Structures are given as structure tokens and as C-alpha cells.
Amino acid sequence: MKPRVLVLGDQQTMVDAAVKLGAEVWWAQRPERVRAEEAAAPVVTLLTDYTDPAFVDLVAHLHALRPFDAVVSIQEHALLSLAALNERLGLRGPHRETARLVTDKWAMRARLAERGVSPVAAALGRTADDLRAFGAEHGFPFIAKPVAATGSFGVVLVDPHGVDAVAGGFTGTGVSAFLMEEHLDGPEISVETFTFAGRHVVLALTDKSTGHGFVESGHTMPATLDEAVRAEAVEVVGAFLDAVGLTDGPSHVEVKLTSAGPRIVEGHCRRGGDRINELVRLAYGVDMEELTVAWALDRTEPLAGPPQALRASAIAFAEAPCGELTAVTGETEVLADPDVAEVRVLHEVGRLIGPVRWSGDRAGYVIATGTTPAHAAAKAVASAARLVFTVAAPSDALPSDAPQQDARQPDAPPSDTRLPTPPQATAAGPGTATGTATATATPGPAPHPAADRDLSRENDLSRHVGYERTDGVCDD
Predict the structure, then answer these.
(1) What's the DSSP call for residue 302?
(2) d(CA 282, CA 341)
(3) CA distance 179 to 106
(4) Which helix (H) or strand (E) holds 84?
């Protein structure tokens, strides 16, 4: 009899991994997120909100009739439901406390402080006075961000002159409490790990590059580190995973290599976003999604140790000027390069493009391989620069009944559509602008408080099943 697997969330690749392993696949999807081709896929599709507490009861009833052998997901918004089901059904994977700790950044900081792991000054704030007090005690600049969000959403660097604007920004998007953290110096990496019955095996270390507003602009693996720094990073990540209680499954932990040693930025009990799974597969021959399903079904043996690198891999995100997208060129030429593994444009023609304020705003990406990390990264960046986004100045107003366009990013919730201010006309023609990955950003969008508030709510994981916020508030 085929094993039965329930996949939660908007990731066709996880469904493909389960089908490849010969499983009978059930797929829980939000109705508004299902594409026509997905609805016709050879799986049982549950059109429901998997973040609703009633969803756990529904699956428990289904399990009593037709038991599931595994429940899997690699999407942040599904982790709380995944953990609740693992505990209720007695299945292998992350459990409630782990999911709570990695989705609640304040709870995570409190647990690490309790265990003496990766000391970072942090506090909860609600007002501009709280921001000033934290800066006075720990120094400016420092980081402020939502307690429960993803995709670099809402992360800001606070300086003494921007306190009121930061506080007003959080209030305007409906965030009544936010996390304040000391600013960590040094480069950032991520550590991709898989845990087998409590034993953590590092699969890859990833160099990260960021652009404006702490949004990631690229990733390269293997990370270029000396052995001592690598060992320290691996050690602190292992301590982090032990502290949050991860016993089974993938993880993605972000680390700053500071002058005082490696410090945890945050971690997740899933594989990393931004196509990091594809980078791991290309560089090390390990597919973390297939491994997640196989381990949950008890159909694979634990890895004995870290895999050896086969080659280097990198992803670079393309930029686009603000305006209404009218055309994208360069994809075919870029993909013809034998070192390029994947090219994707993330905005459809007709979309209104604003500045990149979180991961869901990025315009496209290129994945490349190389004999060295530097070679792979240079190829990805140069290839992304060959993607040309042509935009036209939008009208001065967006009709209130205009449809919202959903340009879904890898591993991210829906992005909103913001009305940008008209870009400067260029040689591409009157009222148009052409941009590549090296384009200078045009002026930002006009304020849309309702859209920003909706996006904030979409990113707030504390609204999901089983979440108990440690700050004791409910943002509404």
C-alpha cells in the first residue's frame, strides 16, 4: 500500500518530491492560491485555510479514517499547523514548542538567553520612547522588526533621528509591539542543516549578500570561510537547534560573523527560501525536500556526515525600476549559458513595481554554477544584469476596484501591489524606463496604508494556529 503524505502550503516541489517517492499525496492549499494546473494535479487537494485552528481537527478526523504516514511542509506560514499535527498524530517532524520558538523572534531570544547561547541584547518595544531607551542603553544604530514575520518584512535600522518615523511605521501597519536588537557587525551566512533523531548534520554553509532594507540580493555556496570560523559557526548553530528542541527535519539558521564571534540572527525549522534547496542540490547533490519527505516516512537512512561539495552554486536577484511593467527581455540569452541552471522572472507584465521593501518585491533571479564560489557568484550577478525590465509611468491614481496582482515569490506569501511614483523617462522612450540588475532605483511608491496593513497582517505568523505570543498582545 502506498504511504499517505499530507503536504501543507504553496509548494509544488514538495508535492513532486512525495510523488517521486511513490506516496499518495494530499495537498492542503488556500483556495485563492491554487493555480489551474495545480488543481488538476494527480493529488487530493484540500481547499482550506491550513492556518485555521479548525484545520488541525479536520486532519485528525481524516487521519482516523485514512491515516497519514507523514505531514510535511517547507513554508513558514504552515509550520505551526505542521507542528500541531505532528504532535496530535504522533508523526516525525518538528513539534509545537520548536515551531513556536522559531516563529516568535522574542521567544527565540528569551530561550537563547536562558541557555546562554549566542548573547544578543534584545527587548520588546511599543513606543518611540522604548526605541530611545534601547538606543541609550545599547547604542545606535540598532535593529527593530516585527516579532513574528518573514521575508525580511519590516526590518529597519534605527538611528537617533529616525525614532519617531520607525515607531509611526509600526503603528501605521497595525504592529503594536516590535522586537529591538543590538546591531550585529560583520558578514552574514546561513547554515543549512538536517536533523536525524536529534543528530544535526550540516549540509552547507551559505554566503549571503543583502541590499536595501536587509532584503537578500544573493546567496553563494560553499561559503568562503577559514576553518576556525566555520567550526565556530557550526557549533553555535548546533547549540541553537538544541535550544529550540529540533529533533527531526531540515533547518535554515542565519548567523552574523561578528567581531565577538558568531551570533544567531534567526532560525527556521524548514529548508531555506530563495531557492537555497536548489543551491544545495547543485553544490552537494542533496535535495532537502526529498530528504524531508523520505525521513518523515522513515524511508531513508540518516546521513553519516556532511556531504562533499561537487561544485559551487549561487543565486542573484535582479532589480527593476519602479513603474508598470511592460516587457522583460534577456531570459533566453541568459539561459543559453551552460553555467546558468535557472532563470525566472517574478513579475508579470502589467504589474505595478515599487521599491524592494521585502523579499516578495524582488523582480527575478538567476541561478548559476561554477568551479569556485567566486566564479558561480560572478556568473549569477552578471547574468541577472542581462535581464532587462521595461516599465511605463503609471497613472496618478489606482482605482479602488483595481484587481490586486499576485506575483508569487519562491517561499513567500502574496505580495501586495503598490502604486509607485512615476519614474524618469529614459532613452527607451517617453514615459518608459528600462532597468537591469544594476539600475538605480526610481522614487518610491505613494503611501498606501491599507495595503501596507494587509501585507503586515499576511506576514504576522502569530495569527496562525497554535500561536501564543510571548509579548501578550494581539495586533488588530
Answers:
(1) P
(2) 9
(3) 7
(4) helix 79-89
Helix (H) or strand (E) holding 236: helix 227-244
- Chain-centroid distance, C-alpha 49: 20
Percent of residues in the chain assigned helix, strand, coil, to nearest 5: 35, 25, 40
**Rg (the chain; Cα; Å):** 22
Q: How far is CA 300 from CA 292, 293, 294, 462, in A?
A: 10, 9, 6, 34
* pLDDT 10s digits, 188-227: 999 999 999 999 999 999 999 987 768 899 999 999 999 9
CB 59 within 8 A of CB 443: no
What DSSP element (H or E) covers 264? strand 261-268
Distance between CA atoms of 169 and 314, rounded to whole angstroms? 34
**What pLDDT band is residue 400 in, cutting at 50, 70 and 90?**
very low
Question: How much is the pTM?
Answer: 0.86
Contact 81/57 with Cβ under 8 angstroms? no
Mode of pairing for the β-strands spanning 199-210 and 188-196: antiparallel
What pLDDT does 377 receive? 98
Query: In which element (H, E) is residue 14 found?
Result: helix 12-20
* The pLDDT of residue 459: 59
What are the residues facing 207 on neighbouring strands? 189, 220
Alpha carbons 202 and 306: distance in angstroms, whole number: 5
pLDDT tens for 335-393 read: 999 999 999 999 999 999 988 888 888 999 999 999 999 999 999 999 999 999 999 98
Cell of 196: 536525524
